[in-house]
TrEMBL record:
Its cofactor is FAD. This is Mercuric ion reductase. It comes from the Bacteria. Disulfide bonds join 44-49.
Amino acid sequence: MAGAINCDVCIIGAGSAGLSAAAGLAQLGLETVLIESGEMGGDCLNTGCVPSKALLSLAKRRHVAAGVHPAEVEPAPREAINAYVSETIAAIAPHDSQERFEGMGVTVIRECARFESPTRVMAGDTAVEAKRFVIATGSSAAIPPIAGLEPGRVLTNETIFSLEETPEHLVVIGGGPIGLEMAQAHRRLGSRVTVLEMRTVLPKDDPELVDVVRRCLKAEGIEILENVEVRSVEHLPGGHRVRLSMEGAEHQVAGSHLLVAAGRKVNVDGLGLEAAGVEYDRKGIRTDRRLRTSRKHIHAIGDVAGGPQFTHVAGYHAGILVRNIAFRIPAKVDYDALPWVTYTDPELAHVGLTLEAARERHGDGVRSFTHAFTGLDRAVAERRREGLLKVVARPDGRILGCSIVGPGAGELIALWGLAISRKLKLKALTDVIFPYPTISEVSRQAAGEWYKPSLFNDRTRRLVSLLQRLPGF
């Protein structure tokens, strides 16, 4: 494609955010151009959510079927693993394909995009002028400045799914969600695994619930070293050696493969944001709550906007964008009921405010309590009693936050997100009829636990005794 195009909206980036925005705007009748230089579907489809969850699913099934101690698991054949992951991506890819979006009326240009001015973008040799622009270029794996580390010789989420062999010993730098998910998946596929974390693993989550995940991963044979300082990396002919400092002493860890999962960086290089007058920093493009940049006709959505980096946030941003552009509704982002999930086994999920954040906003009267899965019949039947559910609420029972660790935590958390977004009290959950026996009953049990002190006490018993003496009913 060459020449010039004039359109209503030009979107740069065909990942989750850009695709969702393009679909919505085009189907509402706006002339939409979508520019993408890489693969349609972006990180989520090709190197992120989809392949990682496929790998986790395969590893879990193998782990359950083996029924042996993790140390006895033989390495899985990589060819079969890669085929499974590839088939999963291929099954979802048509939904994100260029053909599907062109069928919606979107003009798709497969080139790099660069702003020449606030109103003009060059995509290859095609000039695109638009009333509005949307930057949705996402993020990519960040490589920390560690002495001796050569980016091309280590694995990231962008390369680990194309390995030709199952690692003998996978060393992971980074104990966040990506690091722990890949650590457990490869342990269950037969690799020895060591995780190195400069702080504590999953530092954004509740420590009590994180400890459940930590214990489970260690029980499977994963070595987790926390509060370490990685000093240097040496790339060897047959692997890698990591030198680190821990508790004042020097150590080294040698492995066959090295995965770096130490955060993400936003993709802004080469966009020509200076020519567009768009302000940004290393955290991302600066936006207001309507996702407008310093140039009000240019928007930024998804990871590149510098906020929470989740695929579901990208989709949420697209909805905010469509309301602003198509319907001229000044919709704004609101993260009060933002969920996130770490897909280890057990899963760890969170939504809303932590106890500390809730007390800062609502005062010291905010309460928190924890309810265990131990009394949950379905958990007992499946020998999965390690779960916990922690609720943060105001004194009147209004729900402010919830964290869950256990089987299916990512599914369970949605109910609590709905409750927070609708400003419901715990009483609302006690009134719901949950099917028996299910893991979901833990939500009703936890809500009921809140009211036990005020319900089952001497005052209530005296009231009940009085009511029983009243004639008839």
